[in-house]
Amino acid sequence: MFSKKAALLGKGGGLLASLLTPWYAAALVGLGLQACVWIMALRYYPLSFAYPFTSLLRGMTLFGAWFFFHEQVHTHEILGILIIMAGIVVIGMNIEK
Q1: 15-44 b/e with 16+ CB inside 10 Å = b?
Q2: What is the 3-state secondary structure (H, E, C) of the chain?
Q3: Contact yes or no for 81/49 (Cβ under 8 A)
Q4: Which of 19, 26, 76, 78 has the fewest CB atoms within 10 Å, measured from its CB?
């Protein structure tokens, strides 16, 4: 979301204009935090369990596109996200405690 905001603010000014916005800096910080959280998750969960949960970001991205950027969201996109989330729930039910 931060990258999208940076791209919109830098529009017309070229790539450098987007890269120099505070929103792009926030995107880089977010990527760094994501990498740290990913490493911690892999310490506690097997990769085959942890990786499917990255698909949850698709739902958050779709919601963010609609909420923050007022992009049109179609029924088939929502249905696709719901199917993905249902699959993640099925995977989550099989974790060994």
Answers
A1: eeebeebebbeebeeeeeeeeeeeeeeeee
A2: CHHHHHHHHCCCCHHHHHHCCHHHHHHHHHHHHHHHHHHHHHHHCCHHHHHHHHHHHHHHHHHHHHHHHCCCCCHHHHHHHHHHHHHHHHHHHCCCC
A3: no
A4: 76
Is residue 35 located within the same domain as residue 57?
A: no
Residues 36-87 have pLDDT tens digits of: 999 999 999 888 888 888 888 889 999 999 999 999 999 999 999 999 989 8
Token pair recorded at residue 17: 């204009």
Asked if 50 and 89 sit in the same domain, the reply is: yes
Task: Domain count for the chain, please give it.
Answer: 2
Q: What is the pLDDT of residue 96?
A: 58
What radius of gyration, in Å, describes the C-alpha atoms of the chain? 17
Look up the domain containing 9 and give its range: 1-44
